[in-house]
Amino acid sequence: MLYNLLRLFLCEPFIESAALVSPGPLGGAARPRGARWGGGGAMAAAGPERPRSAALALLGPAPGAPSCPHGPALLFVKTNQGEEEGRRFYACSACRDRKDCNFFQWEDEKVSETRLAAREEYNRNHQPFFTHRQNVDRYKNFVLLPLSKRRFCQECQQLLLPAEWEKHSDHQFLCDITNAQLKSPSQLLYPLENKKTNAQYLFADRSCQFLLNLLIDLGFRRVLSVGTPRLHEMIQSKASQEEEFNVRSLLLDIDFRYSQFYTEDEFCHYNMFNHHFFGGEAAREICRKFLCEGNGERVIMVTDPPFGGLVEALASSFKKLMAMWRETEKEDHDNREMPMFWIFPYFFESRILDFFPSFSMMDYQVDYDNHALYKHGKTGRRQSPVRIFTNLTPSMIVLPEEEGYRFCTVCQRYVSSGNQHCEICNSCTSKDGRPWKHCVLCKKCVKPSWFHCNNCNCCTLPKHSCEKTDIGCFVCGKAGHKRSACPSLSRPRTACQPDKKKGQKTRKRVKMGICKRLAMKYAIFSKRKVKNKKKMT
């Protein structure tokens, strides 16, 4: 027992013991766990409260970053409260759940050749069995088959050729796959509903048709569909059925299953969290050519990312796609942004505006087929919170009046029926579709269920705790700025080294003190145990 206690405190990092650290992949280093992700899509700390909290902040893509099966990893920094310098590490860009991808590596860690070889083999083994080109050839052979020989394996999510039936004999599969089903793969494939990675909550027909009609009315003829397979397949379906339909679409998505149904010019395997094209430079060139506005065809990007994803990582990738568009030969692209629809919940508005100040939020409620809550027609707090953020002029976005939207002549934009214009704020202030009320003390409109608390000096829910604390900088504790803008972090790295060494010595002394106390407690416990045995005898 004493050996295990000593091992726990001597071998595991202090404070970051088993509560904050979990084993890394392939016998690698320990990985921070239970800390807070910075920015949008915050991940709450797991388990009981720690004696010292830690924050994780995204630093973004780094040159020469190691890779996992989802492409180059992102660089994060883990900072304990009160510390000026955190420790940097690489983690998977796409998966925030270790069950999906457990890649982890400290930035200053020396990785052995054995681990590098094992990692490369691991990445190779987790790549799709067929390449995109092979899937295209398989599709061509599949459509030539008679209807009775067209099968789709539901367990493997794969189109089956007759020679492969025996291998899948014990699987469930669909028979008689029609051409209409092949043109609507999002209804044939099982949605990947992991909200942190794929989050394939597919547009309902109402929202999808509205988006397509809106794009056509605005004059766009090329749609870069980033994570919007339902919109892409609607465009592809109409293009194959109607000769006069002249809208084209390119789907960028991390779900490689769509390569079974689309050619290289229609689909690129893409990770929107690190701007990684799995097809390499060839896929990047396909995207670059698509963004080149030939014959006056205007391009717009429509994206529907996972709501649990980091806004910082998404914004970084979207800016790089905009840069690809700007690099085309058009002279007027230099000082402009590529037109964009970013579909995201309204409560991320402030985070999106931090990275794209030119964006504005529309009142249109986007609904989904396979989401229990994000449905059209619900009222009150049950309405869909998903909105359209765009850098287009708000007055250009015409919302359907038959669904209750109206045009506000003062705000010069369409708003929902419950979004009343506030004369004091001089704006239609509601975000969730309900009429908001103006608070004179807060000098702004708030939700109808909120009231002004004199103790907190702000509007909040009726049932709340008035134990308000001043939230300051995570590093120095002072108010007025956040960790990323802390003046203490601007000091050179070398200046922090003595303090770091001093901190290491302090932690070592604390560890030894704890071990001594544990040893004493164990000795006292053992003596008492011996005395109790003697009394019993």
From TrEMBL:
Residues 68-110 form the GRF-type domain. It comes from the Eukaryota. It holds the Pfam family N6-adenineMlase. It is found in: Cytoplasm. InterPro entries: Mlase_EEF1AKMT1/ZCCHC4, ZCCHC4, Znf_CCHC, Znf_GRF. Residues 473-488 form the CCHC-type domain. GO terms for biological process: positive regulation of translation. One of its GO terms (cellular component) is nucleolus. GO terms for molecular function: nucleic acid binding; rRNA (adenine-N6-)-methyltransferase activity; S-adenosyl-L-methionine binding; zinc ion binding. Its main location: cytoplasm. This is Zinc finger CCHC-type containing 4. It comes from Taeniopygia guttata. The lineage of its organism: Eukaryota, Metazoa, Chordata, Craniata, Vertebrata.
